[in-house]
Amino acid sequence: MSNIDSNILCPACNGFLSPTVLSCGHCNIRVEGPFQLNEFATLPPEDLHFLRIFIQCEGRVRDMEPALGLSYPTIRNRLTQLKNKLAVGLESEVGEKPKPASSANATEEVLSRLEKGEITFDQAMKQIKKGSK
Fold it and tell me: Where does the record place the DUF2089 domain (predicted)?
């Protein structure tokens, strides 16, 4: 049996397809109806890989650095982004709004962009100072 990406789009309207049939490979029973995917099933493969590494490293970001080949600030930034994605899914389930990212998260994002060479040191300092006000 092959895995299927849960983010498949409808070829007619580009809406997300959802599962409607579940079957047992042992007794061949089929259950049909509308089924809702959980928030993890709708994550793209790169986010699922990131979560697997996170679990394998038991949440220790320092251990994730060599496994992913990413810096500490980049991993923290990815964790924040993933947390916000999952919070949006939670918001639609329970009606809660995700909390805004803190200034520390914004600083981590700026540092990550600096590390990637997307911005200069001076630009990073300006953004960090602007965010702390």
Answer: 10-41, 43-87
